[in-house]
Batch of 3 targets.
Target 1
Amino acid sequence: MTAQLIDGLALAQQTRAQVAQRAAAFEQKSGRKAGLTVVLVGENPASQVYVRNKVKACEAAGMKSELIMLPADTSQAALLTKIDQLNADTSVDGILVQLPLPSQIDSHRVIEAIAADKDVDGFHVANAGALMTGAPQFTPCTPYGVMKMLESIGTPIRGAHAVIVGASNIVGKPMAMLLLAAGATVTICNSKTRDLPAMTRQADILVAAVGRPKLIDASMVKPGAVVIDVGINRLDDGKLAGDVDFESVKPVAGAITPVPGGVGPMTIAMLLVNTMESAERRLV
Ligand code: NAP
C-alpha cells in the first residue's frame, strides 16, 4: 500500500482563490479592502520568512496587508501601545503578532491585548475558550487547515481515534478541540508520555506537532492511518523536514501530508479566511 498524498499546496490555492472572490465582493460593498496587520519584533530569520509569506498571500488575494517591523529591543509597553492603536484602527480587520517574541516581552500579555474580534490567529483566551465551548469566533489557523485537509479526502472523523503528538496552545490543544467537536475520541501526547509508540499505533488519525525531525517512523503508525505532519524543522543541510519520517511512513499510512507543501500552505490560507471573516462581520 502507498499512502494517498494530501496536497496542501493545491488545497491552499483553491482556498485562497475562494478568499479572493470574497475579498473582491467585500471591497465592492464596503469601499475598502479587508486588512491584516502583521507585527514582527526582532530579526528571527524563520519569522521573517513566515510574515513575508503571510503579507504576500494577503496581497495576492486582493486584501490590504501591512507589515510592522519593530527592533528586537522593543519594550513590552511600546508593543502594547502599538496594539492599542491597531485595535482602534477601523481599517484593520485582523492583527497578528508573530511568535516567538523576544524574552523581555510577555507573549501572554501581548496576545491578551489584541482585541478578541481582530485576533485572527485565535490565540486570545476569549477565542480559545469559545473554541473549547463549541462556538469558535476564530479557529487557530494551523488546526483549522488540518481539519480542511481531513475533509478534503473524506476522512471519517466521527468515532475515529485521533492521536495528537504535541500539546501546545497554538497547535496541539486547539487541534484536539476541533477533532473532539467533530466526534473523534482524542488522545493528546506530550514529552512526558510514557510509551509514545503504543499511543500512536492506536491512531486512525495521527497528528504530529512536536518540532522533532522524523520523530514518527513506520513502526509507530497503524496501517491505513491518516498521518498529518505539522512539524517544520530545518535540518543541518538546510532542508526542511517534518516530524514524520515521510519515506518510511508512506508505505504504511492510508494518507499522508508532505513537508514542505502540506500543512504550512494551509495555515496561511486559513489566516486569509479568518481575516476575511473578520472583515465581513464588521460590515454587518
Ligand atoms: P511547541 O510549543 O514547542 O510544543 C511542542 C509540543 O510537543 C509540546 O507539547 C511538547 O511536550 C511536545 N513534545 C516535545 N517532545 C516530545 C516528544 N519527544 N514526544 C512527545 N511530545 C513531545 O511547538 P508548536 O509551536 O506546537 O510547534 C510544533 C511544530 O509544528 C514545530 O515544528 C513548528 O515549527 C511546527 N508548526 C508548523 C506550523 C505550520 O504552519 N505547518 C504552524 C505552527 C507550528 P510538553 O508539553 O511536555 O513540553
Target 2
Amino acid sequence: MKPINIGLLGIGTVGGGTYTVLQRNSEEITRRAGRPLRIIAVVDKNVELARNITKGSCRVTDDAFSVVNDSEIDIVVELIGGYGVARELVMQAIKNGKHVVTANKALLATHGNEIFEAAQEKRVMVGFEAAVAGGIPIIKAVREGLTANRIEWIAGIINGTTNFILSEMRDKGLSFDEVLKEAQRLGYAEADPTFDIEGVDAAHKITLLSSLSFGIPVQFDKAYIEGISRLDAIDIRYAEQLGYRIKLLGITKRTPEGVELRVHPTLIPEKRLIANVEGAMNAVLVQADAVGATLYYGKGAGAEPTASSVIADLVDITRMHTADPENRVPHLAFQPDAMISLPMLPIDEVVTSYYLRLRVADKTGVLADITRILADEKISIDAVIQKEPQEGETQTDLIMLTHRTREKCVNAAISKIESLPVVAGKVTRLRMEELGK
Ligand code: HSE
C-alpha cells in the first residue's frame, strides 16, 4: 500500500490538530482510506514550532512554494488563510496537478469560481469541508446526502464567536462591548474580531452553502452582511419576552424572484431547536423538498473538530484520486456544465417579518398614527407590546412584530414613523424568521 503524500501548509491550531489526529488515528484512517496518509512536509513561518510538533517525522521548511512544487506530494493542505499568498499557493498546487484541501472560506468565497475552474481543468480535487462550520460535515451532507432533493433554504449559526457573545449577552444581561472584551480575554474572540462580529466570516460560509445548494456560482459580492456589533441588549430581552431568541444567521433561500443571500441578527422562535444552540457551537438547518428539515449541530472551530473535516477530505481524495475525473463528486455539488445563473436578490427585495422597537411619547393617538403608516405600506401587525413608562418619564418603548412583508416597504414605513413628532430617535429594526416549512 503506497502511502499518499501530503504537504501541510501551516501548523497552527488546525494544522497542529490535523497532524495529531492523523498520527493518533492512523491505523483506523488507513483501514478506511485503503492506504496510509503520510505528511511528508510541513511549512510554517515558525520552523522551530513545526519541528517541535513533528519531531523529525517529516521535512520542515518556511518555503511554502518548495512544497507546492515538490513532485513527491500528492495533496497540499492549505491552512494559511487569507486571500494573498494562500491563493497563489493553491493555484500553483493545482497547476502542478496536486489535489488541495483547504479550510479557507475567505479564499473560496471570493475566488472559488476561478479555483474550481482551474481544478476542473487540471482534473484535481479541492476539498473544503473544513471551510464551513468546522467539524460539522455539512458540505458532505448538502453535496451528497441531500443530492435527491431540491434544497429550498438554509439557515445556519455558522460563527461560534458571535454565538458565544449573543449567548453571554442573553444569559448575563451584558452589553455587546462588555462580552466582547471578556471573550477576547478568554481567547474565544480574535484580537481583531472584525470578520466574526461584522458577519463577514458567516457570509463567506453561507456563500459557499448557497452555491452548493442551488448550483450557482460563488457570489460573495452579492451577500448582504450585517453583524452584531450594534445589537442592543434590550432587544435580546424584549425578544425573549415575546418568545424569540436573537441569533446571527447566515440565510440563503431560493424564491421565485431569485436567491436570497444574507447574514444578520435574526429573531427566531425559542421553540426551534436551532434557537437553543448556545455558546460557540454551530448549527445548520436545511429545508429540502423530499427530506423536509434536517439539522446539523457541532463544533464550528477548534483544532481537532476542524482537523476532523480536513482529514475527511484527505480520505475522500485518497479513495477517489484514481477515479475517472468525470465521475467524481463535483466541487459545487452540480456538474460544472450544469451550473446556472439565478438573479441574486438585493436586501430591499427580501420578504420576511420584522421586529420594530420605537421610543414614543405616551400620548393619545400615537399607536393609531403608527399603525396607519404601517397599513399604508400594507404591513400587517402580528403583535404589539407597549411598556409602561418608567417613573417620572413621559416616553416609553413600543415593540411591534410584523407579518411577512418586503424589506423596502418596512424601510419606507420606518422613515415615515421616524418623522412623527411623537417618535424619539431612530426605530430599531430586526428581521425575524419562523424557520418552519
Ligand atoms: N472564527 C470562526 C468562528 C471559526 O468564530 O466560528 C472559523 O471559521
Target 3
Amino acid sequence: MIRARIAGLGAYAPTRVLTNHELEQRLGTSDEWITQRTGIRERRIADASEATSDLALPAARQALERAGATPAEVELIVVGTSTADMVFPSTANFVQHKLGAGHAGSVDVSAACSGSVYSLSVGAQYIETGKYRTVLVIGAETYSRLVDWDDLRTCVLFGDGAGAAVLRPAADGSGILDTDLYSDGQYADLLYVPGGRSRHPATRESVAQRLQFLKMPKGDEVFKVAVRTLAEASLAILEKNGFGPDTVDLFVPHQANIRIIEAVAKRLHLPMGKVVVNVDRYGNTAAASVYVALAEAWSEGRVRPGDLVLLATFGGGFTWGTALVRWS
Ligand code: ACO
C-alpha cells in the first residue's frame, strides 16, 4: 500500500496581536478570567485587507519550499475552513490561482475546527490510491470575522491563522499510518453559525438578529464532549494500529483550551512534555490549529524521523478526527 508522508509544513499568523489586556478595556472581561479558564493570553487578528486565502498563501508557499516542491507540481489543493473568502469560488480555488498551481484541482472541506484532520485525511487518500503524487492540504481561518465582538463568552476564544502541509508518497513504511473521521449532528445547536446561508439567508432582519455570528450557548457542554471524544478517538486509533499511548512521541491536539488539552493528555497518560501547546499565543484558530501547532513543533526540532505523532481535533457539528503519523 502507498502511504502519504508530510513532506513539508508551513504556517502563517497575521502580525496584529490582540492581547487579553486590550480585551479587558473593550469588553469588561479580565485577563485573569480568560487565562484561568482557557490558557489563552493573546490571539492574532487578520488585517482588514486579508481574507482567509491571503493567510493560506504564505503558509502554502512555506510548506512547498520546505518540501522542495514547486506550485506547478501540485495536483490537488484541499483547504479546511469554515471562514471561506466567499460562498464560492472555494478558498482553495483562490489559493490555486494566487500560488500559480497550474490547473490543480481545488476544494474546501467544511468541518469547523476539525478541518485540519479532515483536510489531511481527504488529501492523503489521493496519494494512497496512487492518483496524485503532490497534494497541498491547508487549514486557514479568519474567525475574527465570524465571532460576535459583543459576546464576551465566545469572542475571546478565537484567533486567525493558517497552516499547510505538502503530502507526497512515502518511500518506506512511514508516513500517515491512519486517519479516522467522526461526526454527530445531534450536537449542531451547541456550536454553530446560523445566518448567511440557505437556512437564514442574509436579510436586514437576520443581520439585526446577529445570526451571521458564531453561537455557543453551552460552552461547558462543548468542553465535556470535546474531552471525551478526543480521548476516546485517540485511544481508538492507537489501539487499531497496535500502539499503546506510551509509544506516542508527540501529541498535537486541537488548540481550543488548555484545560481540554490537559484533560485529554491525562486520560491518555501522556506527560505534558509530549504535548504541543500554543493556544496561549494564538487562541483557537479552528481548522488551522493542528497544522500551525505541528509546523511550530517541527520548526523547534520537536519532531524527529521515526517519531510516532498523534493528531486529534474536535469542532462544531460536532466533528472530530485523529491521524497517526510515523515521521519520515
Ligand atoms: N470574561 C469574563 N467572564 C466571562 C467570560 C469572559 N470572557 N465568558 C464568560 N464569563 C462569565 C459568564 O458570564 C459566567 O458568569 P455567570 O456565572 O455570572 O453567568 C461565568 O463567567 C462562567 O461562565 P461559564 O460559561 O460557566 O464558564 P466555563 O467555566 O464553562 O468556561 C469556557 C467557559 C471557557 C467557554 C469553557 O466552557 C470552554 O472552554 N468550553 C469549550 C468551548 C470551546 O473551546 N469552544 C470552541 C470551539 S469547540 C472546540 O474547538 C473544542
